[in-house]
Amino acid sequence: MKLSPTLLGSALLLALAAPAAHAEIAIDVIGGSEVSLEGLVQADGNWFHNDVQDLNGPIGANGDNSEFSIRRAELVLKGKGPGNFEWVAGYDPSVLKEVTIRGTTIRSTGRFLDNNIKYKFAGNANNYLQIGQFKQPNSLEELSSTKNNDFVSKAAVTNTYGISRRLGVAYGMGDNNWSITASAFGRELTRNQAHGSGYGARGTWAPINESGNVLHFGLSYLGYDTDDDTLRLRARPDADLTTIRLIDSGAITTVDSVGVAGAEAMWITGPFKLQSEFFQENAKRIGNNANDYKSDGWYVSGVWNITGETWGYKAGVPTTPLPNAPASGLWQLAVRYDTLDLNDGHLVSNGSTPFVDGVLGGKMDVWTIGANWYWRSNFKFALDYAKVESTRYSSATRGLVDDNPSIIEARAQFYW
């Protein structure tokens, strides 16, 4: 997609000129609502060292072993008031693009972000009713702010099991140290995106919640119906611009409903943050000969703020601070290990023709190391290296195939 240089330049000047531009830009008070504007632009590059599969083929558009894209270009209007009401309306047009491949033009549409109204009971931000589209309560990493992700790509388990935004209604209660959120949801607002009604719940508890010293625990559960009684789980190798999924359950039919249970923990001490999440999925199938399908995965990550800053904690998620010295910025080093297992079956030897009993979607393990630089109040630059090890059954060879590529990922980010 070609973003207007005038629009992008104007947004840049606005952000640089606005005081404390790390926050949203105030526009006006309309109908008793304080209206403001937020924006986020992310430009990504991926460089692949392929092993077996071509990670940006067959529809990669930028080279044999590289891919570049505007990852996000989000514009969000927010309103505070009248009274105890808050509202948000967000849209990302960056996926409005056309790619011509072998004579065929593929066009994708934009994406609606958070679009909802929230009422805070007695003005308490921890006790609210929310209606519209919003992120569902099931993942610490998914619920954390996108502009402050610790890595260029979220963990494979988050991208696989995190349901993200859906239209629905939610009720939340709690205080600074604990929270309970329950929701009921339907489809995604964006056309031709996720469908399936369901419900979710998440509870968090921070037995230690002091400045620079936080211990957090959480549990979550999602239950939802499938679209056309079919489920397919698959994952990219922790790189968002790859066009290939190294592990893939394939289309599993006769699936009536899916449940995803999650557990999370986080510890912040001074300039260090350690967090981990575990997910287990259970797909309930219908029919006499249909066995339920189960999969699981987890990650653990650590981040060090080299320049000494610590994190905040709000609404059950960490918050990233501004740099202590804006001119030199906030520097981070990070490491993550994540693993995802989509196998729920085994290979049965039957003479010279083995067959699969159950589902062999594959298993993937990824080590990622990265560095982040937050410069002043509105810029972030990130560089990651991911080493992947994956194994998956191949029907062509009738055996297991190892595919162990590596990827360099870079991101330039501007936000206000």
Automatic annotation (TrEMBL):
The protein, known as: Porin P
High-level lineage: Bacteria, Pseudomonadati, Pseudomonadota, Gammaproteobacteria, Lysobacterales
Presence of the UniProt keyword Ribonucleoprotein in the record: no
Signal peptide positions on this chain: 1-23
SUPFAM superfamilies: Porins
Pfam families linked: Porin_O_P
Source species of the chain: Xanthomonas hortorum pv. carotae
UniProt entry keywords in alphabetical sequence: Signal
